[in-house]
Amino acid sequence: MNIKQISFRDINQVLAHQLGSVFQPTYSGEGSFHYRRNPLGDLMENLVPHPEFKMLGVRNIPQMSENSLAYSTFTWAGLLKHLRQMLISNAKMEEGIDWQVRPPLSGLPTRGKMSLNKEFHFNTSIANLVILRGKDVHSAELGAFKDPALYTSWLEPVHAFSVWKTQRAFSKYEKSAALVSNSQFLVKPLDTIVGKAWNMFASKAYIHQYTKFGIEEEDFLDSFTLLEQVIASYCNLGF
Fold first, then answer.
1. pLDDT tier, 29 (very low <50, low <70, confident <90, very high otherwise)
2. Does domain 8-184 have CATH number 3.40.140.10?
3. What is the mean pLDDT of residues 75-102?
4. Neighbour-count burial of 71, counting CB atoms closer than 10 A to its CB (0-12 exposed, 13-18 middle, 19+ buried)
5. Where are the domains of the chain?
6. pTM of the model
7. Phi, psi of 124, deg, nearest 5
8. Distance, CA of 29 to CA of 211 (rounded, Å)
9. C-alpha angle 132/235/102, rounded to 5°?
10. Lowest-confidence pick of 29-43, 177-191, 192-206
């Protein structure tokens, strides 16, 4: 986005843009004259098939400066190709896409099933929702997101993938696509956070500031156990 000095305002604008790309109105399954009345409920219904897996991530393209936008054109094929690769390579933005990552061949284990000590490559999904906004939205081909190799073995792609559409453009983009994913995207950062928190807890850092308000050490231990179970569950996707 060519931002020289990133401010909290810039960060908030990116967050607002991503949330807006998801929660702005879209058509319901009833047709192109009815908008969704409960998008958050629909989101949970489509993406959280099991109570043990409730972590969702958002990716959105395109996202660029207004100066760059004036010289850019977009096609649904190009946007969706990039968005799919962002998903499977766990890239947060287009600039971070690793084009070498490919879905595993049928019957072979993914890197996502291996130890956290090894680098994650392929990002296994439980469920994905693609939200398309803009011109010629009904011509977009979404077959690549229905590939069984993208998903855990215990959920069929017909149940794991959903799409919402509207021909109304979002922001200043003639065409835009958002992806809300329940996948292994969080495993590495969450494991890092838990590891640092464990080290602080073991050294009793700041514990007294919590205990004087009634929070016990057992509460911390319960929280660590809960988060470690979340990490383990997502690591084991596909078994």
1. low
2. no
3. 92
4. exposed
5. 8-184, 189-235
6. 0.87
7. -75, 140
8. 50
9. 55
10. 29-43
